[in-house]
Amino acid sequence: MACVAGCSIENGTDLEVNWREVNCHNNLKHPSLPVFHFSLACNHCEDAPCMKNCPALAYTRDEKTGAIIHHAEACIGCKYCTWACPYDAPKFNENTKIVEKCNFCVDRISEGKRPACVEACPVGALEFGQKEITEEDLITPGFVNIGIKPSIQLIPLREEHTTPAIENLDAVEISIEKLESYLPKAESKVSLDKEWTLVLFTLAVAGLVSWQASFLFGFLEMKLMPFAIVSVLAIALTSLHIGKKLRMWRFILNLKGSWLSREIFSFSAFLGVTGLQIITDNQMIGFVAMAFGIFSLISVDRVYKFLKRKDGLVLHSGMVSLTGILFFACLADFPILIGLLILLKGSLYIGRKIIFLKKGIGYFLLLSGIRILCLFLPFFFYNLSGELAATISFLIIFTGEIIDRAEFYSESDVITPEKELNELPLIKP
After folding, report:
1. DSSP letters along 406-429, please?
2. pLDDT digits 0-9 by tens, 109-156
3. DSSP state of 178
4. DSSP 3-state helix, strand, coil percentages of the chain (rounded to 5)?
């Protein structure tokens, strides 16, 4: 851990925020299990996802060194770069409410010195220089290679591309069945307790867009004041997720590369144009608003492209696009469309739970039962006439969508080297 200490001393980082980390395959520290470590910080990738996807344009590349530099004064603390980076390089600092990361010691390099981590390593496990990197340089157990061209060469293990074996005849035998329970749990970057505001915000986006579409086609009334109140609440919900609220205007600076920028821009444009539609009662303006609304639904789903889902599926029953269409079908009273969407969502949901059962992944059975009930119970109310029955039916569907969207976050996570290492078998069968 000398490299970690050297980095921390050089850059004056907080004790709980290390820019460099030593990843360990044997987190149990057990002598009879395979042992290897690799030290990682920012790999200053050629196609850096942190820089490409940051909505606030808080990252730039240093022309002389190729280092990806993070600018604290431009960061809004949305944490999106921490999702995008598979190497866990950007770190969110709870004290400053912004992200920070390795700067490649550009000041030291410009003076002809080596980076602090390289200088501090007592065994020569780290080195610094110029070299043409190939795909073969990136094949190491636990290292994530998703084609973003990280600027790092990883020297293979003694037995190339395999975990090293350690023979210890005196070691205490380990129960293979209990290995997983022994392992320390890696902290999840995506969890419901952190993302509950996003659950409500994404459902608010779906609700507002479906409301506007129903109003545009004459199925529902929409007044300016109720629409404005819900819109302000939606904006307030998303603002709770960012560290620097006074810099929220920077959200839309990266429309070219960031789906998060596109989401915020299209949703903001949708709110403004819909307000104009209500005031002027102009249908053409309404169609422009609906176009922005549809694009905002697509953008919301695309924002989460970096997440790794436990089921490994492409489609999720809690996708905002599907929810928006379902809400519109309910508000516009299209029974056939409602039925088709409920069958689609129900199939996706039940299919996902079957995958969990096969993989041995636990889930809340009672909550899943309530969610399935919320899909099919509304069919009973559709046989009844009246505004009350329609309202009850919509509230049941909305409750189900809250559960499904909440499960989307609890069933997703971000790829990191630590989690990739934890998935490797400790003992070969």
Report:
1. HHHHHTEE---HHHHHHTS-SS--
2. 989 999 999 999 999 999 998 888 888 888 887 788 888 999 999 887
3. G
4. 50, 5, 40
Q: What is the pLDDT of residue 178?
A: 66
Q: Per DSSP, what are the bridge partners of residue 40?
A: 21
Spatial CB neighbours of 96, under 8 Å, sequence gap ≥ 6: 72, 243
CA dist list (Å): 141 to 34, 179, 236, 428: 12, 19, 43, 14
User: Is there a contact between 255 and 204 (Cβ–Cβ < 8 Å)?
Assistant: no
Q: Considering the domain 192-413 in this protein, what is its CATH number?
A: 1.20.1630.10
Pairing of β 98-100 and β 91-93: antiparallel
Residue listed under structure tokens 């902290």: 187
Q: How far apart are the first and last CA of the chain?
A: 31
- pTM for this prediction: 0.89
pLDDT for 426 equals 63
pLDDT score for 172: 63
- The reported pLDDT for the residue numbered 373 is 93
Q: What is the pLDDT of residue 423?
A: 77
254-266: buried (b, 16+ CB within 10 Å) or exposed (e) per residue? beeebbbbbbbbb
pLDDT value of position 179: 65
DSSP string covering 282-343, please? -HHHHHHHHHHHHHHHHHHHHHGGGPEESS--S--TT-HHHHHHHHHHHHHT-HHHHHHHHH
- The CATH number given to 2-174 is 3.30.70.20
Every domain range in the chain assigned CATH 1.20.1630.10: 192-413
Q: CA 154 to CA 305: how far, in whole Å?
A: 27
Q: Which amino acid is residue 260, in one-letter code?
A: L
Q: Where exactly does CATH 3.30.70.20 map onto the chain?
A: 2-174
Residue 165 identity (one-letter amino acid): A
Query: Which residues of the chain register pLDDT less than 70?
Result: 31-34, 157-186, 381-386, 425-429
Q: In 3D, which of 43, 32, 79 has the Cα closest to residue 417?
A: 43
Q: How far apart are CA 109 and CA 126, in angstroms?
A: 15
Collapsing DSSP to helix, strand or coil, 149 comes out as coil
In the block, tokens 């044997």 appear at 26
Which residue's entry shows tokens 């539609």?
A: 277
d(CA 35, CA 20): 20
> In which residue are the tokens 């952190």 written?
194
